[in-house]
Design goal:
heterodimer; A: 595 residues; alpha/beta; Pyruvate-ferredoxin Oxidoreductase, domain 3; Rossmann fold; 8-stranded mixed β-sheet; 6-stranded mixed β-sheet; 20 helices; 39% helix; 19% strand; globular; B: 341 residues; 12 helices; 13 strands
Chain lengths: 595, 341
């Protein structure tokens, strides 16, 4: 049997609430520390305890970190799902399983490794509850032995995981060693997979997108954060609370921020709009149902021209949908969120690095254009761990946009809030509390003229809407530009957000396996840069890859393009609720290309 | 020509005026606007320090009709509390004035009203209460009394929400009820509410001359005048005028407010102490049973910290902290990056 080195997808099937997360993180970190590119994806239920959950770790020497459809090694700890999990494996895969489950007789084309986890854990000590938790670290030891994970790295990863809990550290180290010993003595390796040290992770970090976004916001000078807990955005704000308490206290010990849990998403966005109006760098984080509730307020934000940052960590809708599964299903509804002629700026981070970058940049954009800015992350990007280069410190100073101070007003004598003085559609604003008799203006969601006075006149209304259109049009060139890979291929791919990782891998599969050369444009913002149109013009067929049913970004493209260019677009849309995998993209594009 | 009278910061009443009101002639809301700007003038509050916030409805239009020099945000129906909360988080030095109506507060906005009060956000929250939807031409609101009739004779069959009673139960730290036609009481109450530190909920009966001022309405001028039952006479003694009228301590309760001002309640009703919340609630319920419109300061609590005090924030406005105060240095990013390796 030829050995397959550093190309393996390992899935741990457990029950949620059983404490397997620490063990899975240790496995992930061990592989990371061994210099092998790795990713971890948690597939979990909307439940506190007792339902099946799967954690998939992919180690790949070429650096592909998107989801791989096929599982090579299954660790079957959950009696509920074990039979089906085993049935789904491809021939030649391996199964580490809790011996009492008796799975070995189910199939003859797999490598089975029975482990009596209760017996392995028994001598370690601890009460019944502890023993149950320790079973998880026992499979870490078993997997380490079977797949050549280096025990010193396993121990280092356990050390990091339990750095603040001495007793737990000791027990976990002991049980990992016991698992390792059990495997060494009792199991005979009978599958091709293995992991061996590489040197590909030098200097890299591991972080989830929500924590990266939180860090970005902190370095963006966020001052007001109001929110309502909702999966999968909750950890963004919780992570932010942790960082801000540590790093954002003034010399007097006072917070340079306010974080408030609101009574619902209506209030959360209302507070953001109030704070943005009053001059704070204000943000909230939410998911689809929260977005639906925020509609009326973001319309007010758009029309009264109030800066705001809204992170939408997307999950599967409609309605409550699949709260713990990933999608890119909010693109269209967010682009035009609220009634009337409303349109918003969207940013699409694809990596944790971009979660960080857009985390701070979104505030600059919101204040520059005086409008709500949505950052569309998703559950896969936000809640899963990703490797990354370390983040770069913001290279530009904080940009507050057009804000008039008391001194400015002394010089000017006055101002008109919604007058397009500079011809870019963006007026000058003042902040409440500015100590000047001419500083105040009347912000409102009702029709208004350039002086912010109530107006129902058609000419005032039309002029104002035209200016808002101009403002958003001007944003195109100022937003993060799309990134192009490849040149001269007849086939183009457009994708965004977390689909990026699968698309990168799919392009190589398409080229190597199917002989289809592709160019790839990754869109990073809406309204679209003019380059997007140029890309479509330069390609005969353009596949728009996204994680929703109706091809929502494709719909936005159709609004911008001529009929001839629209005819070149083809939607590759996926909605299983699982992170996009390369194979699905490859097969669909290849088949539509007749390969 | 005689010089216009100036207040203690040298401004005239004209400096507190707003645009011309577009509300109906005789609308109670206009009288409240007058009392509000008068109170601000008399207290010598710089208009620029004030943030006027409102929701949607006739009441919520009124911030345009006083104090044009104050910053203002006319927000969404029933959502003024959240916008006010955000604004004060951004700038805790603002003097916040929320203007709402009975529909805006007791129907569509009751959730936000409740949570605002719970948080004790430092804000004067005026409910211009006429029991009816004016802008949509005369539907009952949730504060309309049982049996009160529309012009068409249709009687309200649902019990009213008493916003004062609700505010008391939720922990509001200043609760009062007044009448737009009671100049003296409303002025004193507004001044005390502005001087108070915390949420001050003032339910001001403000008859709607267009849709709810007829016989059979319990929110008409005539009905309110006939049934008003003042708990006490109010005097407000600002901190800069240390010359309150001295009353016999047996007949007057003297409440010292946050800024040193004093609210004096001269007892018309024996043994009423505005620091006794339970008594306040009981008294409101008794008044309902008797068909009285009980007015006065029902409750004051000067001890409870406000939301802004509880958050441990910088004393200076978050909105205008310097860039280097809100963006940690490069060394912090390096430290975090190291921890993620």
């Amino acid at each position: 049997m030829a050995t397959v080195v550093n190309d393996v997808s390992l899935q741990v099937a457990t029950v949620n609430g059983s404490g397997s997360q620490s063990a899975n993180t240790v496995l992930l970190r061990t592989i990371f520390q061994m210099g092998v590119p790795v990713s971890g994806k948690n597939l979990f239920p909307s439940n506190i305890a007792g339902l099946p959950t799967w954690y998939t770790i992919r180690a790949n020497k070429d650096g592909w970190v998107g989801r791989k459809k096929e599982i090579d090694v299954l660790v079957a700890m959950n009696p509920e799902s074990a039979k089906e999990d085993v049935a789904n494996l491809r021939p030649g895969s391996a199964v580490v399983f809790d011996e009492p489950l008796g799975l070995a007789s189910q199939r003859s084309d797999l490598a089975f490794y029975p482990v009596p986890f209760d017996k392995v854990v028994q001598p370690i000590g601890g009460d019944a509850k502890t023993k149950k938790l320790l079973r998880n670290m026992a499979y870490v030891g078993v997997v380490a032995q079977l797949y050549e994970l280096e025990m010193p790295e396993v121990e280092r990863a356990i050390g990091k995981q339990f750095s603040k809990k001495a007793k737990a550290l000791e027990l976990n180290l002991a049980v990992a060693r016991a698992g390792f010993e059990f495997a060494r003595t009792n199991l005979k390796k009978n599958d091709p997979f293995t992991i061996r040290r590489l040197d590909k992770n030098q200097g890299k970090i591991i972080i989830d997108g929500n924590s990266a976004a939180a860090l970005g916001a902190m370095f963006g000078g966020v001052t007001v954060v109001t929110w309502y807990p909702i999966t999968p955005s909750t950890s963004l704000v919780e992570s932010l609370i942790g960082y801000m308490k540590q790093y954002r206290l003034g010399p007097d010990g006072k917070a340079t921020f306010a974080i408030l849990q609101a009574e619902d998403e209506l209030a959360a966005i209302g507070m953001v709009i109030g704070a943005g109006w009053a001059g704070a760098r204000a943000m909230t984080a939410t998911a689809g149902p929260g977005i639906s509730l925020m509609g009326e307020f973001v319309g007010l934000g758009y029309f009264a021209e109030v800066p705001a940052v809204i992170w939408d960590v997307q999950r599967v809708g409609p309605s409550t949908g699949l709260p713990t599964r990933t999608s890119q299903g909010d693109v269209l509804s967010v682009a035009f969120l609220s009634h009337g002629d409303t349109r918003h700026i969207l940013l699409f981070p694809a990596t944790v690095e971009e979660c960080f970058r857009f985390g701070w940049e979104a505030f600059d954009i919101a204040e520059q254009f005086q409008t709500p800015v949505f950052v569309l992350s998703d559950l896969d990007l936000g809640m899963n761990n990703w490797m990354s280069e370390p983040f770069s410190y913001p290279e530009q100073p904080i940009r507050r946009g057009k804000v008039l101070s008391k001194e400015d007003l002394d010089r000017l004598g006055g101002f008109e809030r919604y007058r397009d003085v500079d011809g870019d559609g963006v007026g000058y604003r003042t902040l409440p509390g500015t100590d000047h008799p001419a500083a105040a203006y009347f912000a409102r969601g009702t029709g208004h003229n350039e002086k912010a006075q109530y107006s129902e006149r058609s000419d005032d209304w039309e002029r104002n809407l035209a200016r808002l259109t101009r403002k958003l049009d001007n944003a195109r060139a100022a937003l993060p530009a799309p990134l192009l890979e490849g040149q001269g291929a007849p086939v183009g791919i457009i994708a965004y957000g977390s689909s990026h990782h699968a698309v990168l891998e799919a392009r190589e599969q398409l080229q190597k396996e199917k002989g289809v050369e592709t160019d790839y444009l990754r869109v990073r913002a809406y309204p679209f840069s003019r380059e997007v149109e140029g890309f479509v013009k330069a390609h005969e067929r353009v596949y728009v890859v996204e994680q929703n049913r109706d091809g929502q970004l494709g719909s936005l493209l159709r609004l911008d393009l001529t009929a001839e260019l629209v005819s070149r677009l083809r939607s590759v849309a996926h909605i299983p609720g699982l992170p996009l995998d390369a194979r699905s993209v490859t097969e669909e594009v290849a088949s539509r290309e007749g390969r | 020509m005689a010089e216009a009278k100036t207040n203690r910061i040298g401004l005239t009443l004209a400096d507190y005026q707003g645009s011309k009101s577009t509300l109906c002639a005789g609308c109670g809301h206009n009288a409240i606007s007058e009392r509000l700007l008068g109170a601000m003038f008399e207290l010598g509050i710089k208009p620029e320090r004030v943030a006027k916030l409102s929701g949607i409805g006739c009441s919520s239009k009124s911030p345009a009709y006083f104090m044009s020099r104050a910053h203002s945000f006319n927000t969404l129906h029933g959502r003024m509390p959240s916008v006010a909360t955000g604004a004060l988080l951004a700038n805790r030095t603002l003097i916040a004035l929320g203007v709402s109506g009975d529909g805006d507060t007791a129907s569509i906005g009751i959730g936000q009203f409740i949570h605002l009060v719970r948080r004790n956000l430092p804000l004067v929250y005026v409910i211009e209460d006429n029991g009816v939807y004016g802008l949509t031409k005369g539907q009952f609101s949730a504060t309309a009394d049982l049996g009160s009739t529309l012009k068409t004779g249709v009687a309200n069959e649902l019990p009213p929400i008493d916003t004062c009673l609700l505010a008391l139960q939720l922990g509001a730290t200043f609760v009062g009820r007044s009448f737009s036609g009671d100049k003296k009481q409303l002025s004193a109450m507004l001044k005390a509410a502005i001087a108070h530190r915390g949420t001050a909920v003032l339910d001001v009966i403000s008859p709607c001359v267009a849709f709810n001022d007829h016989e059979g309405s319990t929110k008409s001028y005539a009905y309110t005048k006939d049934h008003e039952e003042p708990l006490h006479e109010l005097s407000f003694v600002p901190v800069f005028e240390d010359i309150g009228v001295e009353y016999d301590p047996g007949t007057t309760v003297d409440v010292r407010l946050h800024d040193g001002s004093r609210l004096q309640l001269h007892k018309l009703e024996e043994s009423y102490d505005p620091r006794d919340k339970v008594r306040g609630m009981v008294r409101v319920l008794e008044a309902h049973a008797k068909g009285q419109v009980l007015t006065g300061v029902l409750y004051v609590n000067t001890e409870t910290p406000t939301l802004l005090e509880q958050l441990g924030m910088s004393e200076r406005p978050l909105a205008t902290l310097r860039a280097e105060e809100v963006r940690p240095p490069r060394s912090v990013l390096d430290e975090v990056m190291r921890s993620l390796r």
